[in-house]
Amino acid sequence: MTRSIKITLLVAAILGLGCGGYRGHQSAVEISDSLKSIQYSAPTKVASDFARIQFMRADTDHARQAVMLQIRLLEQLAQAGKTFREGGGELWLAYIRLAMIEEAAGRPDAEQSAMTQARALYNRDHPHGQEQTYDELKNVILRFDKAADNL
Amino acid sequence: MATVKFPLVTGFCGGLVIFVGCACLGGLTAETITFRWRKPTTFEAVRSQNGGQLRDDLLTLQAVTFSQVREDAPSDLQKAADYLGTLRHGKRPELSAAIDLQIAADYVEMARLEREAGNATMADRHRQIAVDILHSLGWQDISNETMAKLTRRQLWWKATK
């Protein structure tokens, strides 16, 4: 093999590694940036589904436990500045669920407290929206759960 | 020194093959190293939040998500259920309850697959495990319909893959 061919092959190898390495690095940066921005959606979805299913099927104690898991998770994420639109929007729904659970458990004070939180969060998320009554907000949950249950 | 018949053609073709090969190798290596270095799905940003509890919760719930996208075969589902079973140890009750619901869903699906395959005994055994778990989760109506709804969404997701 001539010296010039050896040099050609060596240069081709170096160029190939350089170009491939650059493209690979760029692609990994793009993918990891996308994953970083959506990584919180999967765990919050699991917590949300768990709360919804337990709210529909379980007794009040277990349903409360599940809804509280979702509420704590979303509130801690909000404190950490990791709230995204869907996650933030689900917090008032979770508080309405909690109010409905407390209503079913016969704890009016806890129901009122959860409802107040739900209203405050709803008004924050819908600043130009119409004021909703408790029954209207409950209907939102019931319609949402029925639709999800019939998927 | 050995002589080459067509040095220009050999140099060009050999160079091209080596360039493409090295580009693929370099690309894969750089991608792997960058991905591991940046750790995009390990919730590093909230590592210190609530003494690491928030990150631990997120990782646990993420593991439940990964379990939901497993292959729809009894052996894979059993592995997923076993893994989640080990994961739930030492977790807070509300978090282990969320894991339990996924384990129950896995057993419901295993029961369905075993019944379709004609293994009625195994199907009944898996169904009973699911019923026991759902009972411990406070379910009031444990019927075939409510149990089937537990896995419907996952099946729909898998079908669209």
Can you characterise this structure?
The complex is a heterodimer of chains A (151) and B (161). The model of chain A has no long low-confidence stretch (mean pLDDT 86). Chain A contains 6 helices and no strands. Chain A is 84% helix and 0% strand. By secondary structure, chain A is mainly α. The longest helix of chain A is centred in the N-terminal third of the chain and has 36 residues, at 3-38. The radius of gyration of chain A is 25 Å and the shape is elongated. By secondary structure, chain B is mostly helical. Chain B has a domain at 53-159. Chain B has helices at residues 7-38, 53-68, 74-87, 93-116, 120-136, 144-159. The N and C termini of chain B lie far apart (57 Å). At the A-B interface, helix 1, helix 2 and helix 3 of A face helix 1, helix 2, helix 4 and helix 6 of B.
Short account of what is shown:
The complex is a heterodimer of chains A (151) and B (161). Chain A has 151 residues and is mainly α. Helices cover 84% and strands 0% of the residues of chain A.
Number of domains of chain A: 2
Main β-sheet of chain B: number of strands, strand sense, barrel status? none
Q: How would you sum up the global shape of chain A? A: elongated
How far apart the termini of chain A lie comes to: 68 Å
Give the count of helical stretches of chain B. Answer: 6
Largest sheet of chain A, described in full? Answer: none
The oligomerization state is heterodimer
Number of strands of chain B: 0
| Helical content of chain A (DSSP H or I, runs of 4+) | over 70%
Rg of chain A (CA only)? 25 Å
Strand-and-helix sequence of chain A, N→C? HHHHHH
Shape field of chain B: elongated
Q: Poorly predicted ranges of chain A (pLDDT <50, ≥5 residues)? A: none
Number of strands of chain A: 0
SSE pattern of chain B:
HHHHHH
Question: Which properties best describe this structure?
Answer:
heterodimer, A: 151 residues, 6 helices, B: mainly alpha, elongated
